[in-house]
Structure formats: structure tokens, C-alpha cells
Design brief:
307 residues, globular, homodimer
Chain lengths: 307, 307
Amino acid sequence: MEALKESDVKIALVGVEDQIRKELDPYTYDSDRIEVIHTPDVVGMDDPATVTIRKKRNSSISVGVNLLKGEGYSAFISAGNTGAVVAASTIYLGMIPGVERPAIGIVIPTLKSFAFLMDAGANTGPKPAHLLQWAVMADVYVREVLGVADPEIGLLNIGEEETKGTEFIRETHGMMTERLKNFIGNVEASDVFRGKCDCIICDGFLGNVVLKVSESLTENAGALIKREIKKSPVAMLGALLLKPRLKRIRRLADYSEYGGAPLLGVNGIVMICHGRSSVKAIKNAIRAARTEIEHQIIRKMKVEIEK
Amino acid sequence: MEALKESDVKIALVGVEDQIRKELDPYTYDSDRIEVIHTPDVVGMDDPATVTIRKKRNSSISVGVNLLKGEGYSAFISAGNTGAVVAASTIYLGMIPGVERPAIGIVIPTLKSFAFLMDAGANTGPKPAHLLQWAVMADVYVREVLGVADPEIGLLNIGEEETKGTEFIRETHGMMTERLKNFIGNVEASDVFRGKCDCIICDGFLGNVVLKVSESLTENAGALIKREIKKSPVAMLGALLLKPRLKRIRRLADYSEYGGAPLLGVNGIVMICHGRSSVKAIKNAIRAARTEIEHQIIRKMKVEIEK
């Protein structure tokens, strides 16, 4: 409903029809702009990706991704099982020529503004060439969708010197130095939130850990602060006065503000959202998907990958 | 000086004598309990470890570590170049039989109390057997030095199921399941700060990233909060009222409260401190080293590793 107000987007809601209708019921909307597509199969959050592909062909994920292969549907957005979305997108849409594996990019807030980190968890054991391919795609995404004119790209490592880290990292560093004009070299995890560069490339295991540590730390810091504040009435008053400002901080630290996480590398626009996405997060994911369509990022990524 | 007050410890200060004397000058102390050992070579924070070993044999790190091989010195503490301390300790002290590589353990604050994470950065490309050896030593350390009666040990992974993660992680999981009685399986990065277990084992690349992300996030959150608060006088008053409680939070999030990080696996007690350690951090590192000595952890680790 929020997205309909914001632009002239048309939305197909794919899932168990009864449940969707029940959610839609309280609203009045232009019925030409909302379509409901019934899919009886439901993919659980813990279902292995293979189950989705082989046994749940009538799920929102399988059917939704397949819609992109026909006419009239330009982007697929899901807040469901990430592994299943990655697998279904890879199998049904295929890859952009020259890209071997898809990766998930996330926008994270930094002291300066934000940074785009990729891969956030689609791949646990990639090769150096995969990271180079992701860097080329991330560059396009940050320019076109996030509007950074000349993004700087860094490789996540445990030291800045090019001799640091594993053999895997050193090899990736060499390939990026040769191929990427805007590669600034290794960046440390402590640089991520300082906003040292616009794009941070790493394998999905590491990216997932960075994401989870920061989410968890923000959450738990909040819980700790509340616990401490409740111990003192003076502190409670202080917190009350601070509240409007702290809300702004929280918003800065809230990933959902930036909408979904694009799955780049597959031959279509796919956006993955957190299972606990707010209304705003979904609306922002729809907006980001629209920008991807308008800026023709699939075509542009193909051009850059071919170079 | 603080450590001298706290216990009957004797301290040898190893380094450039003039500089040490200058720092000691303002204090009155029992000169029998402070010894100064002059070492003219200085290891820079960016010197490769090999330089320390081959060319700077008269540095505080080389000389200090070697003191442990003689009589009368029971622990070495350094806030210098970590790589150099790890290399010098490994080469001069040798390893505990059955341990192939040393690892750095750090105490991190959690919602419940704290957790011990190892390796925090000594090894970037370990084998599953190394992680198992670290787990056995971490178990001893947490029991003896941190006083946790029956510590639970987790393996850092990107999912809880034993099929998750890389081949490396799955193999490590299998070895730990077989060998460790108190192994609770995989833990996710988001569990770390929730205090799901007492010991978290991971490779040094990952451990270092967890450490740096959390340090950096805490620092930058502080900077962000200050920036926001300064925008409103009401918020500034609120912050003033909150200050005593926020200080407690900050202390909870301050790694230095727990003193240094033990280097486990070498045949001697070595403690590594942050280059920016406070007085309190160094004092606490000395206290932790004393506890290691009193609880004979080297002997106990040898026993456990041999089992």
C-alpha cells in the first residue's frame, strides 16, 4: 500500500491466496495495480534449498522467480528463505554471462553515510575470480542504484598490507589490482563502519559474520542500555529527554531503512528482505528494485563483466 | 604501580631503560619489586615478525620472552607488536606437546556476562585439528582463570545445523563432537553477544574480524550518539543525567576491563595487550597472568591435550 502511494508500480502478491486476501481486506486500493497469484506450497525458513526446487514447485519463491522469465514482471522481492531464493533464482533465471556465482549485497550504515558489502552470505567457499566478478557488479549497483558517482572498492582483510591474510585473499588482491580502476586495496573490519570505502568485497561466510555481529551488537547494546537505565530514576528521565535523538541513531543503525539486499549475478532483478522486515523495509525494497529496473542494471552489469 | 598495590607480584620492566626510568621517576615504590632490563632494539608496530626474530634480538619482546626460559620469571606481558610476540614466543618457548599452533584468546562482554573467543588473530589458515587443540586449551583457561565451572564450547559458523558452512567447519564440527564433552555445536555470530556459550572457537581470520567489527561499532556508535546529542540542548541535558549509567555500559563494552589476551599453546605464560591499553588493562593483565601461574594452567593444558 505504501509503495502504491509512492509510485505507479504494479504489484503481484504471490503466496497462499486466503492469507493474502485477509491482509489486503482492510485496505481500499486500485485493483488494477494489485494482482494475487495463489501458490499452495509453503517453503519453511529451515527448508534446504533443494526441497524448494525439487518438491515445492508451487511455492511463492519458485513461482515468483519464474514470473520474471515471462512478460510483464520486472523484479522479484522475497522476505522468505534466503537459500531457497538464491537457489531458485540461479536455476530458473540462470547467470549473467561471465558471472559464475550470485552474491548478496547489503547496505550498511557508516559514520560517513553507508557502504555496500558483498557477499553477505550466498557463498561460503568462493574462488578469487568470483570475488572479482562481484566487485564489478557491486560497482555498477553502487553507481546506479545508490547514486555514488565514483565508488571506491576495498577487499576485507585482517590487515592493510597486500602481504596480509590468506593465500585466497592475496590472490584476490592481485586480480582486483589488475582489473579494477577504483580498487583501494585491503580494508580492515574496523574500517567498515568508519566508511573508508563505498564497496567492501568479501566471501559470504565473512560477510555473514560481519552482518550478524553488528546486528547482534546493536540489539544487545540496546537491551543492556535499557537494563542499566531502569536502575535509576534520574537515568530514566535522562533517557526520556534523549529519546528523539536516540531514535535517529537507531534508524541509522537499522538495515531495514535501506530496504532489501539485491541478489546480483542472476539474470534478473531479485531482492532479498529480512524475515522480520518492517513495512518501510519492504516499501524501500520495492523502490530499490524500481531503480534497478529504470537504470537497467542487468544490461549495465553485462557490459562491465564482458570488458 | 597499581599491580604492586594489588598483590605481592614482582615486575621486570624490559625496554629502553632511559624511557622506563623517566616513567618510574614520579613514583615511590619498593625497588626490590621493580627491576629494569635495558634492551636497545625497538620493534615497530608494523615490523614483520621475522625482523624481530632475526634482526632485533635485543628488543623487549625477544629478551622478555627469553626470560621465561630461565629461573625466576613466570609470565611475559606485552602491549607491543602482536605478530612479533606470537613469533618470538613460538620460537623461543616452543609449543606444548600436541599443540601445533598457538592462538590468542580474548574475553568479550555478553548480555549474560562474558565469553572467551579463540583464535582472535594469530592464525589465518588453520586446520580442523588446530581448532580442536585450541578448544581443549580454552576449556582449561575458562575454568581456571575465568572461574567458569563447566564451560560450554561452541564453534562459530553461519548456521546452527551441522551441515552448514564450509568443508573446513564441518570437519572441525565432527572432531569436536567426538572429542569434547562440553561441545554444544555450531553457534552463529549473533549468538556471541547473547552469551549462548562460554567459549567460541574459530579461525584467526574470522576471530579478528569479529573483534574489529565489534570494537569499531562500539566506537562509532559512541561518535554517532555524541554527534546527534550535540544537536539538541534537551538531549544534552538528558545525556548528562544518563552519564553515570552509560559509563557502566561503556565499561561492559570495554575489552580492556578484562586485561590482556592470553597466547595459548606456547610452553610458557604469555599475555598480549592492546597497544592502547589503559593502566587498568595492564593491571588486569598482570592479575590474569598471576592466576594462570597459581592455577598451573600450562601443566593442566598439557594433561588435557595428552588425553
